[in-house]
Amino acid sequence: MPLDGLVISAVVHELKEKILYGKIEKIYQPEIDEINLHIRCLGKSYRLLISASSHHPRIHLTATAKQNPPSPPMFCMLMRKHLQGGKILSVQQKEFERIIAIDVENYDELGSLSVKQLIVEIMGKHSNVVLVEKSQNKIIDSIKRISGDVNRYREILPGKIYIAPPGQDKVNPLLLNKDSFLSLFHRGTKGCPVQKALYTFLQGISPVTAREICYRAQIDEDLPMAYMTMGKYDALWDALTNLLQNVTSSNYIPNIIIGKSDRHVIDFSSIPLKHYEHLYDAMVADSISNILEDYYAQRDLHERLKQKSIDLRKFIVQTLDRLYKKMQKLLEELTASEKSEEYRIFGELLTANLHLIQKGNTEAEVINYYDEEGKTVKIPLDARLSPAQNAQRYFKKYAKAKTAVKEIKVQLEESENEIKYFENLLVYVENAADIQDLEDVRNELIEEGYLRKRKDKEEKIKRKSVPLSFISSDGFQILVGKNNKQNDALTCKIASKKDLWFHTKDIPGSHVVVISNQQSIPETTILEAAELAAFHSKGKLSGNVPVDYTEIKNVRKPSGAKPGMVIYDNHKTLYVTPRHDIAARLRQNKTESH
């Protein structure tokens, strides 16, 4: 969801509670389109993030300290000149738009008090931060200058009169009564869907909020306005006013929407979004700023992980594609080579019938003594060779084919192991929780000789790579490897003989170990560990995933095997469907246990 009128109203409410009448102590500009204000209010320090980013424009309090450039940009210097040391007099949302105006009182160069207005426009790629001399409504400067060549309606340049973004003839929903609401919507295009009409006619209503209003009114969001009855209008009005009561009463319930399976952030809101309830989970916080910071941090991490993993994923997928083709070719060669038994029989039959075959013949038809019915078989001959030489030729072909079968089977086994290895790597890349997880996979590929070590790059300080740790409902520690190196360490070094080892059956995934501490492991813990194994595998979105488990003493790593590759016996198999919240729930157990 973009920061619509509802979210902006929640942000303004929080800023009024925390920084109103506060003093702006420091101002930084860590990004070309981002300002940070350090504010002291009622004995507490706050950091206000204001971003005019084209992709993620926003305004909220933040606990994150970014690195600042060695020399502050010109706009930052100007902000310091006019606002640093100033007192925040007001924080207002302009009508129900995505515009916030912050009034700051400060002494000017002549020692006189004056009020500057910092206007934050959250408008997607047109977002901006504008500093205005309030008494004259004159622009001092902006983080993005907009000339008349770009926008004839409003120039955002020093010395120009500030003009707010065009309102697009939208109406402030907070000022509507039922009659004006009906009049407004009756003027709409009859073919316009209800959802679109809501965000087209009303200020601050995003498509997601419009969908929520339709859902609460139990009206199909795609229903054309021409089919709206009076009863439906009543329901729509009731849903809208009910939703806006959160704003008028400042009853905000900030929440972040996350996927049930992958736990990725989907959306956020300042009110509960009921139309999401059956599709996603919602996590509530007491601060809209905390929600926004968490959402954008996770989105930023997800985007950076996606970007950083592109080349790694591409290499692994291309390698797998090559290995699959190699396997197919080897299987075809094996099928051809397995005809070696036919060559031996031809040689034997020719040897037994030398007296019946003449040199120069291109074919010999003889009784096949190996056939139960004693049928004849036609054997192709080389006319240049004698019957005995033809027999020897088939014996040589038999010997060569037999040797080839052995070699092909060795290559097939090697290719199969290599495919399993790279399929595991692909799972670890897809399950990477941070950049270091990706670097661990990359470093492993370098160590195994698949990738070259990158040159001309400073050696980064590596974080110690450790498995994921969970606590079962019974209080047992469960460890999960995030890559092959961790799997080896977990299975071959960390775990003890009586600990239980888990892995999805014939499915790429992580090694999972339950630390027994020489105790009997309950069924509940076994089931939870099996779920974790399924969740951290290629089968995480499947049902009835087979998971093998056995004691560590039954797990062995063959000599020369690739990282993460083991063999095991004396195992049992469970079939589980991993619950979407299993990892989060068992992590919570870990937190509570401390």
Automatic annotation (TrEMBL):
GO terms for cellular component: RQC complex. InterPro entries: NFACT_RNA-bd, Ribosomal_uS13-like_H2TH, RQC_Subunit_NEMF, RqcH_bacterial. PANTHER family: NUCLEAR EXPORT MEDIATOR FACTOR NEMF, RIBOSOME QUALITY CONTROL COMPLEX SUBUNIT NEMF. It comes from the Bacteria. The gene is rqcH. Keywords: Coiled coil, Protein biosynthesis, RNA-binding, rRNA-binding, tRNA-binding. It comes from Thermotalea metallivorans. GO terms for molecular function: ribosomal large subunit binding; rRNA binding; tRNA binding. Residues 469-561 form the NFACT RNA-binding domain. SUPFAM superfamilies: S13-like H2TH domain (SSF46946). Gene3D superfamilies: 1.10.8.50, ibrinogen binding protein from staphylococcus aureus domain. One of its GO terms (biological process) is rescue of stalled ribosome. Key component of the ribosome quality control system (RQC), a ribosome-associated complex that mediates the extraction of incompletely synthesized nascent chains from stalled ribosomes and their subsequent degradation. RqcH recruits Ala-charged tRNA, and with RqcP directs the elongation of stalled nascent chains on 50S ribosomal subunits, leading to non-templated C-terminal alanine extensions (Ala tail). The Ala tail promotes nascent chain degradation. May add between 1 and at least 8 Ala residues. Binds to stalled 50S ribosomal subunits. It holds the Pfam family NFACT-R_1. This is Rqc2 homolog RqcH. Associates with stalled 50S ribosomal subunits. Binds to RqcP. Belongs to the NEMF family. The lineage of its organism: Bacteria, Bacillati, Bacillota, Clostridia, Peptostreptococcales. Residues 398-425 form a coiled coil.
